[in-house]
Amino acid sequence: QVQLVESGGGLVQPGGSLRLSCVASGSFFSINAMGWYRQVPGKQRELVAAISSGGRTDYADSVKGRFTISRDNSKNTMYLQMNLLKPEDTAVYHCNSDRRRARILSWGQGTQVTVSS
């Protein structure tokens, strides 16, 4: 099975930035639509950013204009640049296939993002 490994999270102040990375085994990045998800206790998992196999991107309204998703298929790596972070962005962030367009893979451990003053 494909292994997904997220990294790059941490503790930042409001208004700060982080860049998350997702590295996968195999070579499915070239054909799969991918996305970044986040989840906090008591709330459903939210797809916050997605990128198609052709490079088209879309974002949840809550992060639009602040987050940028990208991918490097040759490295089987996906990124999420997070700017102007807000406390409500605090969550565990996971990468996976875009559930609207592709089969969900096994979830990795995720990476914790905490935005606090």
Keywords, separated by commas or semicolons:
117 residues; mainly beta; four-stranded antiparallel β-sheet; 0% helix
Structural overview:
The protein is mainly beta and 117 residues long. It contains no helices and ten strands. It has strands spanning 4-7, 10-12, 18-24, 34-39, 46-51, 57-59, 67-72, 77-82, 91-97, 111-115. The strands form two sheets. Strands 2-10-9-4-5-6 form a six-stranded mixed sheet, with no helix packed on it. A four-stranded antiparallel sheet has the order 1-3-8-7, with no helix packed on it. The model has no long low-confidence stretch (mean pLDDT 94).
Name the strands of the widest sheet in spatial order.
2-10-9-4-5-6
**Count of DSSP-assigned helices:** 0
- Residue windows where pLDDT falls under 50 for at least 5 positions: none
Largest pleated sheet: 6 strands, mixed
Summing up helix and strand content along with how strands pair, one would put the structural category as: mainly beta
How would you summarize this macromolecular structure in one to three sentences?
By secondary structure, the chain is an all-beta fold. Helix content is 0%, strand content 45%. It has strands at residues 4-7, 10-12, 18-24, 34-39, 46-51, 57-59, 67-72, 77-82, 91-97, 111-115.
Topology of this structure?
Layout: E1 4-7, E2 10-12, E3 18-24, E4 34-39, E5 46-51, E6 57-59, E7 67-72, E8 77-82, E9 91-97, E10 111-115
Parallel strand pairs: 2-10
Antiparallel strand pairs: 1-3, 3-8, 4-5, 4-9, 5-6, 7-8, 9-10
